[in-house]
Design goal:
Number of strands: 2
Strand order of the largest sheet: 1-2
Radius of gyration: 18 Å
Mean pLDDT: 91
Low-confidence stretches: 1-5
Shape: elongated
Length: 152
Amino acid sequence: MEQEQKKFFTLNTFLAILIVFAVLGAIDAAYLTYMSYRELPLPCTFSFFDGCNEVARSPYSKIFGIPLSLFGVGYYLMVIALSLGHLVFRHELLRRLILPLTSIGFLLSLYFIYIQAFLVGKFCIYCVFSALMSTILFGVSIFMSQSKEVIR
């Protein structure tokens, strides 16, 4: 007689992981946004990632005068809203929107890393951290999308 294995990663676990990493990303992006609007220098003492201020002050750091980090805050808040929304309202559409959203976030993060590496020539630890958060969100979203579990 086979016993049914208990899954470690339930749908609720995936959603909780998404929320935690999206909150971390939102804090990082909000800090960058605050520092940008206040025009304050970023503390940046990591040897390889010592280009925070060069990246933050580059012409690639804003779109129409709006810091890219502010769009990042919006992105992370949308991931949080969709994840919480699915937990609370149990609407499958909310869950299905997470993978396309995190896919866009991941692809944009790759582009921003490219800009840092090849156009600015410096790396910002805060930006790399945000890219890592987007990558984790994308990976978790892929695994979650494969889950057949439905929250009732």
